[in-house]
Amino acid sequence: GRVLVTGGYDGISQNLASAEIYDPKTGAFSPTGTMETSRQFHTATLLADGQVLVAGGWTDGRVALASAELYDPATGEFNPAGTMTTPRLDHVALLMKDGRVLLVGGSGAGAYLDSAEIYDPGTGKFSPTGSMATARMDFARTTLADGRILIAGGHDGAGYFASAELYDPAAGTFNQASPMTEPRAEESVTLLPNGTALVAGGAHDKDISAVASAEVFDPTTGKFSRVGSMAAARAYHTATPLLDGRVLVVGGYDASATSLATAEIYNP
After folding, report:
1. Which end of the chain is more exposed for a tag (fewer CB within 10 A), N or C?
2. Are 66 and 56 in contact (CB under 8 A)?
3. pTM (two decimals)
4. 100-117 burial code (b ≥16 CB/10 A, e <16)
5. Environment class of residue 172 by beta-carbon count within 10 Å: exposed (0-12), middle (13-18) or buried (19+)?
6. DSSP string, 27-85
7. Predicted pLDDT at 206
8. How far is CA 4 from CA 30, 88, 90, 118, 156, in A?
9. What is the rounded radius of gyration, in angstroms, for the C-alpha atoms of the chain?
10. Euclidean distance between CA atoms 45 and 53, whole angstroms
11. In degrees rounded to 5, what are phi and psi of residue 261?
12. How confident is the model at residue 171, as a pLDDT?
């Protein structure tokens, strides 16, 4: 039940290799092992065996990383975990039902990425898999009940997308889904108890025009439909499922790029 916090950057834009543990029983943070490489904009994915895969990001000099590390909570140490097929940062990493990790999108080598790859804890290796139809970052993503992975929205630095794709782990391919009702990036997505996925807020364009609208993806029809709007326009917020099926939406920034302290509840 403890939480691992890794890397990032400090107030003077120094990339960090340090890590710490939050213990909910004591309400306190304590230092743990140090990563071999300082990094920010990386991913950290909890694996089935309790280890955490830390992958990609960038280090000093804004160099995109292909390196990866494994954190072992039993020893409190980080160990090398191979090399990704593509250096990437601001990507997404999702644990699949078979225990492998899908790493997809983001940016690297001065370009936005449509590529994806798989980390297999059994072999400790990364291997390429199918590519998205659209290069994108800052997109919504979640693993559906049937094991497929929903990718929706995002941007490529110029355009913001309404398009959506579904990754099939069995086939190793992305397939186009019906688009969202409007383009959005930096939005949240939350899997609901009935198997649908709530997509909320986000920005419409690079001018940070956060929106309050929300919609739901139904995997049985493959389509999005509008639901009630949030009380506040927000992007880069969090949306966390509660035990009773409702969703807690917290923070983010509004249409004028002002950080928000407010929170609200979505009742499905």
Report:
1. N
2. yes
3. 0.93
4. bbbbbbbbbeeebbbbbb
5. middle
6. TEEEE----SS--BS-EEEE-TTS-EEEE--EETTTEE--EEEEEETTTTEEEEEEE-S
7. 76
8. 10, 21, 19, 22, 30
9. 18
10. 5
11. -105, -5
12. 97
DSSP 252: -
Sign of the C-alpha dihedral computed for residues 74, 77, 80 and 81 taken in this order:
positive
> Of 195, 201, 209, whose CA–CA distance to 257 is shortest?
209
> What CA–CA distance (Å, rounded) separates 262 from 237?
10
Q: What pairs with residue 247 in β-bridges?
A: 241, 266
pLDDT on residue 50: 96
Per-residue burial over 212-247, b if 16 or more Cβ lie within 10 Å, else e, is bbbbbbebeeebbeeeeebebbbbbbebebeeeeeb
Token digits of residue 80: 């090398």
| Secondary-structure percent of the chain, ordered helix, strand, coil, rounded to 5 | 0, 45, 55
| pLDDT at residue number 170 | 95
Which residues of the chain are under the pLDDT cut of 70? 208
Our measurement of the distance from residue 105's CA atom to the centroid of its chain's CA atoms, rounded to an integer in Å, reads: 10
What are the DSSP calls for 102-154, one per residue? EEE--EETTEE---EEEEETTTTEEEEEPPPSS--BS-EEEE-TTS-EEEE--
